[in-house]
Amino acid sequence: MVDVARQLLDELMGRNRNLDPSASAKEVSWTDEEFCSYFLVKFCPHDLFVNTRADLGQCTKLHDDEAKRLFDEAKPCRKKTQYEEDFLRFCTNMINEVDRKIVKGKQRLLLMNSKTEGGRTVPKYQEQLNSLTERINKLVREAEEAGTRGDVEQAQGLMEQCDQLKEEKETLVKQHESNGWSVTAEIAASQEKQMEVCEVCGAFLIVGDAQQRIDDHLTGKQHLGYVKNDLRIVLCT
């Protein structure tokens, strides 16, 4: 936290903000390790997805406009080429990662559409969740009946089984959320709405959704971040 605050102050007030007025300021050199090489080349990927699921966290390097200017004006050299290659490599890895996410999302939609119940689409996750919920409710009813009969021991045993299933259900939900499955996809499935995967950022979208929701997605940080990170755009700008 202290390092982040120091970095922000350096970017806002300059790296020499604490120097004595009579002291000579250190000359800026783009080759200094304190500067973010990605920012010098084009932009820092850490700035693209702030407060989204794809958030990369705070960049540990300085984003200095003067250093960036010096980098742009510098003649081609080995270090400059290395910076540019590192930047493109990072962008390539991010694009490859989102491409895998898109493929995985499409596979999930196929799996979701392959599970039907009474002509209604039921996602595999929802099917498992429904099964656990039914078993839990059944155990609760049986425990209540045992308690009514005065069979306390049996009621306690049934409630212990119920607690175990609740833990299993909670684990399933957590795994489900960590895998990045969209709540939107579940809602759409329950309402029998057709889904598709965004070819840019991998988000789940409802086919024929309201224009406002579509616009919100297209102008969202995550979508725009991957648009900016697309190598076809990076290489042409």
TrEMBL record:
<dbReference type="GO" id="GO:0006376">
    <property type="term" value="P:mRNA splice site recognition"/>
</dbReference>
<comment type="similarity">
    <text>Belongs to the Luc7 family.</text>
</comment>
<dbReference type="GO" id="GO:0003729">
    <property type="term" value="F:mRNA binding"/>
</dbReference>
<dbReference type="Pfam" id="PF03194">
    <property type="entry name" value="LUC7"/>
</dbReference>
<feature type="coiled-coil region">
    <location>
        <begin position="122"/>
        <end position="179"/>
    </location>
</feature>
<keyword id="KW-0175">Coiled coil</keyword>
<dbReference type="GO" id="GO:0005685">
    <property type="term" value="C:U1 snRNP"/>
</dbReference>
<dbReference type="InterPro" id="IPR004882">
    <property type="entry name" value="Luc7-rel"/>
</dbReference>
<protein>
    <submittedName>
        <fullName>Uncharacterized protein</fullName>
    </submittedName>
</protein>
